[in-house]
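New to this. Explain the following:
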Amino acid sequence: MQIEFKASKRDAQGTGASRRLRRAGQLPGIIYGGTGEAQPIVMDHNELYHLLRKEAFHASVLSIDVDGSKEIAVLRDTQWHPFKQQVLHIDFQRVAADQKMHLKVPLHFSGDDVSPAVKLGGCMISHVINEIDVQCLPKDLPEFVGVDLSALEVGQSVHVSQLVLPAGVELVQHGEGDPVVATAVQVKGAAAEGEGEAA
């Protein structure tokens, strides 16, 4: 899925110019990378603020209409005001259809409530990681990666190596090991009650 929005080229640079834009409800940003030069742009603040609240915006290939010409990019960085609900600046990186890109993708968990760990073991499922680093061609970028927890037993964990990635998507590993994605945690009290009855 591609998310589209409009932007305009921004000529005036510098802190004063950016402040004036923000006062007028505009959001300064930049598109960089790829074969083109870095292009300063300006967007409608409210439109981008609402897009940023959507999870898909952070893990999608974006189509930016800059004064009629399309730029294909991904979100790279967002600067927020320290205490106001205001975006101060936003960075996008161009992507090429034939080049693999590297991006964080959210994990969507399902099946916790029907897993043996929860239904029979009185456990809670702890989500340890909520996103993973992947690399793929722009056309293969998933909005999210699903994690099925319906078979999780007491004392078990799901590891990154067990995730089912869509075709064309590779995991980008950082460091050694096989990080835990989710784990079944015994709830205090549930085990103790059982032990008390047995005594």
The radius of gyration is 22 Å. The first helix runs from residue 15 to 23. The CA atoms of residues 60 and 141 lie 7 Å apart.
